[in-house]
Amino acid sequence: MSSKPTIETRFEKGLFAARWLMAPMYLGLVLALGMLVVVFAKELIHYLPQTFSMEADQGILAILSLIDLTLGANLMLIVLFSGYENFVSKLDISDTVDRPEWMGKVDFSGLKMKLIASIVAISGIHLLKVFMELGKGAAEHAPDLTTVKWMILLHLTFVVSGVLLALMDWLAGKTDKH
Fold first, then answer.
1. Are both 78 and 2 inside the same structural domain?
2. Stretch 85-102: mean pLDDT, rounded?
3. What is the span of the domain harbouring residue 165?
């Protein structure tokens, strides 16, 4: 049999090269990560002078805000590294002690699980912050019961989605590959 027609080969090479259209999006995520660093710094600068006058629950809320931002940044790094390596190109960096162990090993399935786990954690932190603020401060700033119910429902939806994704991956791993 003859080899593929030239036009088909060129078309397929063009399709494969199209993955590089994702590169500017990953660069945009790097800039967004920089934005998160600025927001984190602003939060930290806001809370530092209040450290000695804060009540314990206010301190916990401040720390939860910082943890929330950090989890968001971690999530962005996971998407940046894993997404780039899975969909665009392998990162051409030497294996150093600083290279995270999971880097280059997280496939699309693992990426989904890390994403949903981060989303559940972030949602849980937001929910915890709302619970801690209930009954404190000005009544006009307190979330109403409907909002709290929706937040709980949304959080539970994230949790159930994570469990279902894990179950689907587990089942897919148990079946023969087609």
1. yes
2. 77
3. 107-178
